[in-house]
Design a protein that fits this description.
CATH superfamily of the largest domain: Bira Bifunctional Protein, Domain 2
Order of helices and strands: HEHEEEEHEEEEHHHHEEEEE
Structural class: alpha+beta
Number of strands: 14
Number of domains: 2
Strand order of the largest sheet: 1-2-5-9-8-7-6
CATH class of the largest domain: Alpha Beta
Shape: globular
CATH architecture of the largest domain: 2-Layer Sandwich
Strand content: 25-35%
Largest sheet: 7 strands, mixed
């Protein structure tokens, strides 16, 4: 299937949603960077950039994101939520992606804080990463860079580019350095074939249209989304080590806040609320 027909199929299937403006390209540097550039040029909410291959894909903390061409769904959506709920957009994307995978495959991935979909291990093997999510926030939509940055008011709309890389069809030959830590949909559905990237994209965006729509329009949307994330979490209730760069926090992950921050009860009985960090799931004592 060529990129034009893939884009046509996706656009046709998404008519009536806020994500019908799908632009599918063979290759780009980073779909997140492309969306942020287009947002600065005035593109509206709902734009979706999909690439068969990224040459400069980005992960958290400046890491690179690599995937074989055509093997993963690589896309970024442009959202313009109010500042009051902008911190929940990554949760909305994660829950929508997990629900799309479950709908298409019957396999239900879990959510690892802060931004991964994982296939849970069996106790003797670790969780394996199925997808990674990266949200990048730009200046408030009505601000001027020359005027300097100011804390946005809760009602100010922000520009948020949320990218996801979801492993779809890697085939039988998985690099040795990934076999123990990553998984693709074709490994979960074998011997049956996995859904196509178009099918995954459409299911994901349909679920996101519902989740995000409720988040921005329903006063109870943020609480409902938080409850959905908690129900799908692979992290809550687990012993974890959180790498904060300068030190580590070890304890039990007991909650996630409305802002998406992780609450860890340390071995000393203290509760730490963590906004940014890398989590390692530890085996039970």
């Amino acid at each position: 299937m060529d990129d034009g027909s893939a884009g046509d199929l996706a656009r046709s299937a998404l008519v009536g949603t806020r994500f019908a403006d799908v632009r599918w390209v063979p290759e780009t540097g980073s779909t997140n960077a492309d969306v942020l550039d287009l947002a600065r040029q005035g593109e509206g909410e709902g734009l979706v950039i999909v690439a068969d291959h990224q040459t400069a894909g980005r992960g958290r903390l400046g890491r690179t994101w690599q995937a074989p061409p055509g093997a993963s769904l690589l896309c970024t959506v442009l959202l313009r939520p109010s500042a009051a709920v902008s911190g929940s957009t990554t949760m909305a994307v994660a829950v929508a992606a997990a629900d799309a995978v479950a709908e298409l495959t019957g396999c239900t991935p879990r959510l690892k804080w802060p931004n991964d979909l994982v296939w849970p291990g069996d106790g003797s093997s670790p969780d394996r990463k199925l997808a990674g999510i990266l949200a990048e926030v730009d200046w408030p939509a009505a601000s001027q860079v020359a005027g300097g940055w100011a804390e946005p008011r809760p009602t100010d709309r922000l520009v948020v580019a949320v990218g996801i890389g979801l492993n779809v069809a890697w085939g039988p030959s998985v690099p040795d350095d990934l076999a123990e830590i990553a998984v693709a949909l074709d490994h979960l559905t074998a011997p049956a074939p996995p859904p196509s990237r178009v099918e995954v994209l459409v299911a994901f965006l349909r679920h996101l249209d519902q989740r995000y729509g409720r988040l921005v329009s329903d006063p109870g949307g943020a609480d409902a989304l938080l409850a959905a994330w908690r129900a799908r979490s692979a992290t809550l209730g687990r012993r974890v080590r959180v790498d904060l760069g300068v030190d580590d926090v070890v304890g039990t992950a007991v909650d996630v806040t409305g802002e998406g921050h992780l609450v860890v009860e340390t071995l000393e009985g203290e509760r730490r609320t963590i906004a940014v960090g890398d989590v390692v799931h530890l085996r039970p004592l």
